[in-house]
Fold each of these.
Amino acid sequence: MASTIRIRATSSGDTTEVQALIQHPMDSGFVKNSAGELIPPHFIQQLTFEYGGKPVFIADWGPAVSKDPYVKFSFKGGKKGGDLKISWVDNKGATDSSTAKIQ
């Protein structure tokens, strides 16, 4: 199965800019389906970006984050050619991860 994560990281000087798009339903548990039944909550609980084995960005999310979330941030210390790892865990125990080279 292909990863649900698309990531781009570019380094300029000592700053690395990261953009990531994650495909996930992010169901809040407050929306009904076509039969009028509530769709159970299904959302990413923790999102982690690591560089050099150390976390550079951690987000604890809840059901208020929209479907297919987009994340953009920057950090200092990344180098071109370095590996940036992203991973998430959702409230049903599903996980995904991906690694991108910093350009």
Amino acid sequence: MTFSALADPTRRDILARLRKHPLTVSDLAEHYAMSRAGVSQHLTVLERADLVQRSRRGQWTECTLSPAALDPASEWIEQQRAEWKERLDRLEEHLDRKTALHEKHTEKGEEK
């Protein structure tokens, strides 16, 4: 659900704005060419992914970033990065061995 919520550029932008400090729905809506209801729909998606919390302050609804929800996604990305780095390192070693072997045969005039 986290990656689905992050797939939309407007939602990523909302998270970036909330990183600085809490904002109301009206504050957020000022930055987008969409209605407050449209912004509220994006906030609902972010709220379902536990990336944003909404709370009432008088007549206003204040939105706050919940960065802890990004931890599992960050851990998954880091795990994928480590696995791919290991695979690419093994590929590089294999290619280095093949290149060295080819150069050795070329020096001996065994080139095909």
Amino acid sequence: MEKRIAFVKDWGAYIRVNKGRIECVVKNEVKWSLSPAEVSSIIFLVNSSLSTEVIRLANEFGIELVFFHDSEPIARVITAKYGGSMKVWIKQIREAKNNPEKYAKQFIYGKIHNQWVTIHYYEKKYGFKLGGDELYGITKEVITANNIEEIMVKEAEGAKIYWKGVKYLLPKELGFKGRKKKGENLDPFNKALNIGYGLLRKSVWGAVISAGLNPYIGFLHKFRSGRLSLVFDLMEEFRSPFVDRPLIGLARENYEKLKDLKVVYSTFVFDEDEIYTQARRLVNSILHGDEYRPFMAK
């Protein structure tokens, strides 16, 4: 049975045990009630209260308790039995050392496919020529790459085509000349991209922590002290559909809105279920050898 991740999203919620089940109660209303056998993690996104009986059951059934503050993970309670996390971490380190291409090519395959979906949408709708066919061809080449260097070359080739297409789609008044990560004089679209990627990083970070993965051990991004390498790996699949595409739509609707930070922040509505599902897929692949399939936008 595939276990579920339970979220605590209501301020003032009380998490308790009732007749052997874990319940989330808000003002005497039961928001959810689950058997501990069907829960893998409980994610606390807001201030709430917690019964010590829940902690006892969490230890017994190997349930991870993860706590957030301001959308960032701040603590994760590991059961005294050390059931899952240590096993995941050891296998994750082995895979990162011995077989990083296995996952790196899937992350980049998903990334370029999803970039193609974004570009192809406008090609199909307006008849533009944005390099979609070339981008689609590169996705196939990524799968046959033999090492990290070849994968990164294909990623760079895809990025060149993709951002050229994005530039064509954006109003010239924005002054977008290409993707830039840093700089004091960034154009409004690059500034908005950086905000979106920052928010996406927090969501993926939370999913990685909740799944029991080590966020610092990546497959594509090399280990560097303090760098969330695995988070950056997993983010690749979501950048275009969750950040780029809504911003392109906003810019084409009214480019002036990109200068209003409140509008930019409110533009991003991430599908948390998809992000958490990908983290769980990665765990299942690392632990049990299941095929890892990237998130494929439609």
